[in-house]
Amino acid sequence: MSEAEANKEANKEEWRRLFEAAIKFKRQGSWQWMNNDDYFAVTDPGTGELGYCVVLGGGGMEYGLNVYTGPTAGALLQELSGAGEHFEEDSEERMHSTQAISVTFEDRDELDKEDLGLIRELGYKFRGSREWPQFRDYKPGFASWGLNKGQVLFLTHALEQAFLVAERLRVNEELFFEHDEMEHGTGEKRLHRVPQSTENGIVWRDEWLPWHVESLKTEPYEYSDELRLKQCKKNIKKSDEVWETDFSYAYMTIGDKGERPYYPRLCLWVDGRSTMIMDVQLGPHPDCRELYVEQMLRLLEKGNRKPAKIMVGSRKAFLALKNSAENIGIQIEFNPYIPALLEAKEAINHGM
After folding, report:
1. Is 7:150 a contact under the CB 8 Å cutoff?
2. Rounded to a whole number, what is the distance in angstroms from the first to the last CA of the chain?
3. Cβ of 179: how many Cβ atoms within 10 Å?
4. Which residues form the DUF6930 domain (predicted)?
5. Using an 8 Å Cβ cutoff, are 103 and 329 in contact?
6. What is the pLDDT along the chain (352 residues), one digit of tens a residue?
7. Distance separating alpha carbons of residues 250 and 92, to the nearest angstrom
8. Residues 205 and 232 grouped into a single domain
9. What is the three-class DSSP state of 41?
10. Count of the separate structural domains present in the chain
11. Are 269 and 279 a contacting pair, CB within 8 Å?
12. Rounded distance, CA 321 to CA 309, Å?
């Protein structure tokens, strides 16, 4: 399926098949014997994209199926299961970094008018708590959104395969470990359901993927204007100040009517001694590292003084500033618990 075709709206029959798959999955109640660690992979027959399926509901909080997509999906699930430290102490960043399509079963008042309109148009009726299907697309840095045609088709296949895999696990709880090389623990392999087109339609087979994929890694950011860094090091006076800083996603969204809203980046600097806000800036893109470094350089150039130390509130911000700060001759330190910085961030977000 081409990208242009996938981005079209799904027709009624495609939506109906998705609803039927979701209803069947809900009735099965596979969260009674599957948990978050029992995830498996499915290849999208339409695009060849790999998705990692996670059954929701084992904790009794939310019921449904998430299909994590994108090149870092496998590594992200390792992070969620505690096997990595990329998002250490940064749950907000982890939440906004999710790329997935999902169905969850909600109360009626959790659905918006588009959800309810689609249900009415297809002739479905649902009653009770956590019975109403809601389908969503999650994209890093953006608000959740409805599904396009390609996503409707992929989520349908994923739900149908999730039903079959869950039945196999109900009968054989050691299914995932039969192909492992470990006697205990999470195991080395993950079930992967692979489609094959035949004259009689799609036939699915098992493959086994390594569970331990390459971890999410971010290298220190290299700012391109080396001359500007050298000038800051040479010309700006030293001080005994301590600056505190971080960048994160703002709580509010921005977007024109009819367009998908996005969460801007909030780049914040605070004077560590007075706790006064030095500067705040909103960035339109998830990757705001260049803007963030330039914000630091403007503060240095405007005040003609450089701090003895910069305290940074997240690992991502530390890696964004590390090389530039050290090249200028400023000590930089990562500390996820900086009270004045956290208070300033909350005040700005709640004031928007």
Report:
1. yes
2. 42
3. 14
4. 228-348
5. no
6. 778 888 889 999 999 999 999 999 999 999 999 988 888 999 999 999 999 999 999 888 899 999 999 888 877 777 666 555 544 555 778 778 889 999 999 999 999 999 999 999 999 999 999 999 999 999 999 999 999 999 999 999 999 999 999 999 999 887 776 665 555 555 567 899 999 998 888 999 999 887 666 666 678 999 999 999 999 999 999 999 999 999 999 999 998 888 899 999 999 999 999 999 999 999 988 899 999 999 999 999 999 999 999 999 999 999 999 999 999 999 999 999 999 999 999 999 887 7
7. 10
8. no
9. strand
10. 2
11. yes
12. 12
The pair of three-digit structure tokens given for residue 197, joined into one six-digit string: 């087109």
Which is nearest to 10 in space by CA: 143, 155, 126?
Answer: 155
* Boundary residue ending a domain (181, 210, 239): 210
Burial class (CB in 10 A: 0-12, 13-18, 19+), 247: buried
In 62-96, which positions are buried (b, 16+ CB within 10 angstroms) versus exposed (e)? ebbbbbbbbebbbbbbbbbeeebebbeebeebeeb
Q: 235 in helix, strand or coil?
A: helix
Note whether 136 and 144 are within 8 A (CB).
yes
Give the domain-ending residue among 164, 185, 210: 210
Has residue 218 been placed in a domain?
A: no
- Quick one: CA torsion of 22, 27, 31, 34, rounded to 10 degrees? -90
Of residues 122, 190, 204, 198, the one with CA closest to residue 160 = 204
Single-letter amino acid code for the residue at 337: Y
User: Residue type at 254?
Assistant: I
Encoded tokens for 32: 């009674």
Q: Which helix (H) or strand (E) holds 290?
A: helix 289-303
**100, 144 contact by CB (below 8 A):** no
Question: For residue 223, which amino acid is it?
Answer: Y
**Whether residues 197 and 68 fall in one domain:** yes
Q: How far apart are CA 309 and CA 320, in angstroms?
A: 15
Q: Which amino acid, one-letter code, is at 148?
A: N
Structure letter (DSSP) for residue 59: T
